[in-house]
Specification:
This protein has about 300 residues and is an alpha+beta fold. The chain has two domains: about 160 residues, Cathepsin B, Chain A (Alpha-Beta Complex); about 100 residues, Serine Threonine Protein Phosphatase 5, Tetratricopeptide repeat. It contains 14 helices and seven strands. Strands 1, 2, 3, 4, 5, 6 and 7 form a seven-stranded antiparallel beta sheet that branches.
């Protein structure tokens, strides 16, 4: 075959790909409700479930997902488990970017992102992306309303504090569409490799950024190198991860426990438990460290 034929074929492929990805999308039937105290996860659950045809109340979702009344933290894993009660399958991935959001939304899947509540805040917050256009995204925000629009730059900035974490829930029969939208990142190991590569780039570009080091450390841990991850997490902590971060993220304690850094685990978990004494996740790692040290 001639070189001209190959160039023509490549051009046709690019044209088809561009046509398959619309310049904008806006999903319908997105249910919104303003949250009660610390209820962004229950509201996010009712938004996602409502889109897929199931109605739940904020109160019932909160009762199911929270460890106790007033529990300030619900993890993505807990959210996914709750959605699973209603027949939805979820994948949670990291190193998300604008492209994967557009691919998923354009195919009919709202995407839950975990981000910073607002610039300058250390509070983690769930939002649901359900639309996009040139240069911006449309989100249902349990606090800021049903039609929050964030620019690409704002999305990236709020998202980097939680390492581009995203969750997509879907009926099992539609898994092929999700796989097509996510590409290799549907595979857990491939996603962690990509997250590690991104983390390496970010710590090189921003060596004083504790969240970049945290993201690199988490990917390193998930790829099986707890010893290296322990040092990377320690770097993040020394650079200034706020205490509230440990309420949402316990991977440092996983790495330190596996690497035998029990004193460091005990030091940080005790500090965090002073602020959130009922956290079962913090209690677990404190107790493991205490037992290992003979306390």
């Amino acid at each position: 075959m001639s070189r001209t034929f190959f160039l023509l074929l490549a051009g046709l492929t690019l044209t088809a790909s561009a046509a398959a990805a619309p310049a904008s999308a806006n999903l319908q039937n997105i249910r919104h409700e303003y949250q009660g105290p610390d209820n962004c996860a229950p509201v996010t659950a009712l938004t996602v479930l409502g889109y897929h045809g199931t109605r739940v109340t904020q109160a019932s979702a909160a009762a199911a997902m929270k460890d106790y009344p007033g529990d300030p933290q619900v993890s993505s894993l807990e959210l996914a488990a709750y959605l699973g009660r209603f027949g939805l399958r979820s994948v949670i991935r990291y190193a998300g970017d604008a492209d994967v959001l557009r691919e998923l939304v354009s195919r009919g899947f709202p995407v839950v992102v975990q981000q910073r509540l607002k610039p300058g805040s250390n509070v983690a917050h769930f939002r649901t992306v359900y639309g996009y256009s040139s240069g911006s995204f449309l989100l249902s925000d349990p606090l800021r309303g049903p039609s929050l629009r964030l620019s690409n730059a704002e999305m990236t900035e709020l998202w980097r504090f939680y390492n581009g974490e995203y969750l997509v829930a879907y009926p099992p029969a539609r898994e092929g569409e999700v796989r097509a939208a996510m590409g290799e990142n549907f595979n857990v190991a491939a996603n962690w490799r990509n997250a590690r590569q991104l983390g390496e780039q970010q710590v090189k570009a921003r060596p004083s950024d504790p969240y970049a080091w945290w993201g690199l450390a988490k990917a390193t841990l998930r790829l099986g190198d707890a010893e290296t991850a322990a040092g990377q997490f320690d770097r993040a902590v020394n650079l200034g991860v706020p205490t509230i971060y440990y309420l949402y993220r316990q991977e440092a304690f996983e790495a330190w426990t596996q690497a035998g850094w029990y004193t460091r685990t005990l030091q940080i978990t005790e500090r965090a438990l002073d602020a959130w004494p009922k956290s079962k996740e913090l209690q677990k790692f404190r107790d493991l460290a205490g037992q290992a040290l003979g306390d």
